[in-house]
Amino acid sequence: MRFRPDDIGTEAHFFIHLKGMVRMGTIVFVGAGSMAEAIIAGIVDGGVMHPRDVFVMNKSDDDRLSYLQQKYGVSIVCPERKALRDAELIVLGTKPKDIHQAMADIAGFLNENAAVLSVIAGVSIATIECGLGSRPIARSMPNTSATIGKSATGVSMNHAVDEQMKRRILTLLSGIGIVKEVQEDELHAVTALSGSGPAYIYYMVEALEEAAITEGLSKEIARELIIQTFEGASAMLRQTGEEPSVLRTNVTSPNGTTEAGIKALEKNSFKKIIAECIQSAETRSRELGSTSSSATMKE
Ligand SMILES: NC(=O)C1=CN([C@@H]2O[C@H](COP(=O)(O)OP(=O)(O)OC[C@H]3O[C@@H](n4cnc5c(N)ncnc54)[C@H](OP(=O)(O)O)[C@@H]3O)[C@@H](O)[C@H]2O)C=CC1
Ligand SMILES: O=C(O)[C@@H]1CCC=N1
Questions:
Q1: Prediction pTM value
Q2: Which of 110, 220, 226, 295 is deepest in the core (most CB within 10 A)?
C-alpha cells in the first residue's frame, strides 16, 4: 500500500504498531541515496509513513530528489530549510566521508528536540553527538532489502532516547523488516554480517549461476532454481527452527551428490573464506569509524 500526497486521512499521520498507534512528526533524510531510497520505499510502500511527512535533501544532486519526489510523493527540503527546523527525526544517510560536512550544513537548523537516526556504516554515536550536539541519537545498520520490507537491521541508541522515541524508532525500523537492538560496538559485526550480507548472497548467486551454465543449464532456468532454493532453505530454517547443520545432514545421503559437493567446499576452506569475509568487513567498519572520529578531532 502506498500513500499518495492527495491521500489525506488522519490515520496516515500515525505509525501503526502491533502494540498500538505511535504518533510521529516529520522526517528529513539528509543524504537521499540508495539506502535512503530503500528505507523510503519500505516505509511509504508499507504504509508506515505518509509521504507528505517525509522530506529529502542532498548536497547537490537535485535530479535525484526530483526522482524521489516523483516516485514516492515525498517533499524536497526547501532552500530556507524549514523542514529541518520542524523535523522530529533526522535520518543521516550520507557516505561516511561526507558526514562531517553534512552535519556542519544542518546543525544550525535543527530544533533542540529533534532526534537523529543514522544508517551510516562505522560512524559512532559520539561522533554524531560531536557534530549535532547532545540529543537522542540512534545508530542503525539496515540493508538494501528494506526496499521490500525485508531488511535485517541492528540498532543501538544513546541514553537521551526516551521510551516514546525508542518505540517510534523501533516502529520505523520495523516498517522495513526485522530489528535487533545490540550494543553499539556490536554494530561493526552487524554491518559485516547483515549490512553487507545481501552482496555476499548476490555474489554467491552469480557464482552458482555461472557454474550451472557451465554444466549446461540455461541462465533463466538456473536463476529460477537458485532463487527458489534460497527461498526454500531460508523458509526451512525459520519454520522448522532446526540447526542448519541438522538440515544440511538431512539433505546429505551417504556417498551421494551433496556429500561430494560439501567435500569440495571443505577442500577449498569454505568456512575459512567466509570467516575472512566477515572479519574483513568488520575491520573495515571499525576503520570507517576511526577515520570519521579522527576527522572530528581535526576539526
Ligand atoms: N548501500 C547499502 O547497502 C547500505 C548502506 N549503508 C550506509 O548508508 C549510507 C549511504 O549509502 P548509499 O545510500 O549507498 O550512498 P549514496 O552515495 O547512494 O547516497 C549518499 C547521499 O548522500 C548525499 N550527500 C553527500 N553529502 C551530503 C551533504 N553534505 N548533505 C546532504 N546530503 C549529502 C549524496 O548527495 P550528492 O550526490 O548531492 O552529494 C547522496 O545522495 C552509507 O554511509 C552506508 O554506509 C547502510 C546499510 C546498507
Ligand atoms: O559497503 C558499505 O560500506 C555499506 C555498509 C553496509 C552495506 N553497504
A1: 0.89
A2: 110
How far away, in angstroms, is 99 Cα from ligand 1 center? 9
Ligand number nearest to the C-alpha of 40: 1
Domains of the chain with bracketed CATH: 10-191 (3.40.50.720), 197-278 (1.10.3730.10)
Pocket of ligand 2 (CB under 6 A): 121, 191, 195-196
Which residues are within 8 A (CB) of 39 and not within 5 positions of it... i.e. 6 or more apart? 29, 91, 93, 119, 142, 146, 176
Mutate to test the pocket of ligand 2, among 37, 191, 201 (most ligand atoms within 8 A of CB): 191
From first to last of its 299 residues, the chain has per-residue pLDDT tens of 444 433 333 333 334 443 333 457 899 999 999 999 989 998 888 888 899 999 999 999 999 999 999 999 999 999 999 999 999 999 999 999 999 999 999 999 999 999 999 999 989 999 999 999 999 999 999 999 998 989 999 999 999 999 999 998 998 899 899 999 999 999 999 999 999 999 999 999 999 999 999 999 999 999 999 999 999 999 999 999 999 999 999 999 999 999 999 999 999 999 999 999 999 999 999 998 877 665 543 33
User: How open is the CA angle 153-10-174, to the nearest 5 degrees?
Assistant: 10
